[in-house]
Amino acid sequence: MNTQRLCFIVSFLLLTNLAKGQQVPANSLNLKEKWQITGALLDSITRQAVPFASVALLSETGAIVAGQTTTEAGHFTFAGLDIGIYGVQITYVGYQPRTLTGLSITASQPRRDLGSLLLRSESRQLNEVRVSAQKALIEEKPDRLVYNAGSDITNKGGTAVDVLRKAPMLTVDVSGNVQIRGSSSIKVLLNGRPSGLLARNLSEALRMIPANTIQSVEVITSPAARYDAEGAGGVINIITKKQLKGSNGSLDVTAGNYVQSLGGSYGFKREKFGLTFSGNTNAEREKSIVEVTRTSLVNGQPVGELFQRTRADNIHPGWFSDLSMEYAFDTLNRINLSISSWGGAWPNSNTGYYRFRNADNQVTQEYNQVVDQQNPFGNIEWNLGYTRTFRKPKQELSILGQYSYTFDNSRYTSDQISLTNQLLYRETSTNRSHNPQWTWQIDYVHPFSRNAQQVFEVGAKMVRRDVRSLYDVYTSEPEEVARLSLSVDRSNTFTYDQQVAAGYASLKLANRTFWTLQLGTRLENTSMSGQFIHTISPFRVQFNNFIPSIILAKQLTERQSVKVTYTQRISRPMIWDLNPYVNASDPKNRMAGNPQLRPELAHLAEISYSLTTLKGTYLNLALYRRQTANSIEDIRTVDTSGVSLTTRQNVARNARTGLNVNAAGQLGRNWKINGGGEFYYANFSSPALQVQNSGWLWQLTLNLAYQLPRQYAVQANGIYSTGWVLLQGKNSAWYDYSLAVRKEFWDKKASLTLGVNNPFTYPFRQQNDSQSSTFRSHTANHYFTRSVKLTFSWQFGQVRTEPDEPVRKITNDDARSK
């Protein structure tokens, strides 16, 4: 622990010294730090700030001296100027350009504050949709890193899993499991709001979202107070492509050996009303072979050994649709309504061979097994929101409501068959569940100044969930295998209610020396209760969480900044964690929920430094520490017959200290490159289980893009990870790589993209070694991921370049994704 603290302090001092080394010398600051031109850009109608606009500093002759983009609050500052006469030129897509001249800097007037500059929107009718420039793949905003997936052609024809695999600070393994800095306790939002699709099972849900529809991915490692406190690792916000002004649409068709999809969208927007419909249907194939060798232990001595080999080859169909409408009564009042639905199936059928030897190395069980497991599910969700803006920039009131209904039905049939093809045992089970959910939310933002440098936010929220799960298990009798009888002790009806009431307040302060301090606090009250029809005792739990958040940032120079953050995050157990239903589709490897689970609380601290050079090269360094005292971990126990049971328990302390590096730049005129890495130390300890596991690990990602003549483009990306540490084991290294070639035609309105994934790997092998006082196990996973796909994309219609108003919707960050 002392060593980790020392590493943290040393790294902090190194970063601080680096920041100081990059500043302008003190004697220069004494002469010129007050010689500056400042201002802020506002929309002439809404009085909202205009962020990321281009501002150029002009000499007296009109030549460009320097350039920058406005901050999120619309501010710009040119500092360290010489005495003279300057001009300012402002340009931004969707607004009329504006130029100011004759701005004098003298010894008696060293500072020119231009105040709030109003920009008028520009309406121009275009004949077709065009894209004239692409954003950088990685961008930094005040509280997040953004991966612009729309600029990455290797995503064509893939799913959200492929997109998140390339986002900074995220790890997505071969099975699609997502982590932020090693934590799978995260909250994933879709366009800033929760989704029943993503809350159900994240790895499965991400495969239902086509990559073609994703514009960007925002990674928020230190969420502010306005975000729900759920998600120990942080928040991921997936932003889909927006409907543009005018009437337009898109069509995407993908064909491949492992994925097929058909999707599109169409919509129109006028001055006051807009409507958009989008839909997609897809099918993805998943093929794998898993071999497990597991030894049962009693007092450290082997008492039996299980060997199993299972093969799976499943097609996972899915679909989703979304209808969104918005209406602006005037420039200050608007409402939005959206209706979304999705559904599909995620079968997990497989065949296997099982052999169990006793302590004398004699085979006591040997059989084949056939499992037919289906999991149909669906969801429908309504969102209604009202937003009132005011003349003062950033002042806003929003009232939001959401209702969603999810059904999730699973069933399986498991047959044990002798090597002579005789039925030995049969088991069937059904688990029918539904989850209606209501959410209400109100938020108010009040700036104390017109430049929005001092902002106060306050809000309240209420979430109500009612979940019901009915599960039955039928097993065969030894004397009559074909006859099934209800297993009363494994069948039940579980009713679960959860209510979360929350309130928050946040204050943001900024000064003219480029210091920004944001202080926030959030108070959440959670009430959970569960009841069973028989056998299991009911439970009721209520707790309060006081969640502070602190963000301190300093703009060192025009192109350098440093930031320090601290917050806390909680992870509440959800229905799938608490439900004691035992899934025994594989009788030797059972899984069950734990109604005794309690929330976990994590502490997160981070210091980061970012630099952008004159040529546009970007670098971000982030040193972080996350610590959880009562972390929820998967715990496996194995009995003497070789049967394992996996449940989740609050039995461990989880700590992780690491360094993230992310960089992006351009090599020459046509080459673009970006990538990142993470080097970290993970430590798990459980005094209750007398288990401790730790290790140093790292991973690297790299993306390359090259623009060829005649509208051809090539892009490649890859990731390599040394694996990860778990409480009871460790996974071996893994990697993933892809290559894509795109050809644009029809005046860039259409394209064909050919992509290949892991062309030289068949299959990909990954191993896991785990152990405890009751077992030691070795697992060899064989994943078949070599694939090829061809995607046709077409954009059609007309568009007017006018700025869009943001649409406010419910964000249930508290519903944690698995």
From TrEMBL:
Primary location group: membrane
UniProt entry keywords in alphabetical sequence: Cell outer membrane, Membrane, Receptor, Signal, Transmembrane, Transmembrane beta strand, Transport
Ranges for domain Outer membrane protein beta-barrel: 388-794
Pfam families assigned to the protein according to its UniProt record, in alphabetical order: CarboxypepD_reg, OMP_b-brl_3, Plug
KW Transmembrane (keyword) present: yes
Topology within the bilayer: Multi-pass membrane protein
Signal peptide range: none
Subcellular location: Cell outer membrane
Stretches assigned to the TonB-dependent receptor plug domain: 158-235
Signal in keyword set: yes
InterPro entries (alphabetical): Beta-barrel_TonB_sf, CarboxyPept-like_regulatory, OMP_b-brl_3, Plug_dom, Plug_dom_sf, TonB-dep_rcpt-like
Homology family: Belongs to the TonB-dependent receptor family.
Protein name stated in the entry: TonB-dependent receptor domain-containing protein
Species: Larkinella insperata
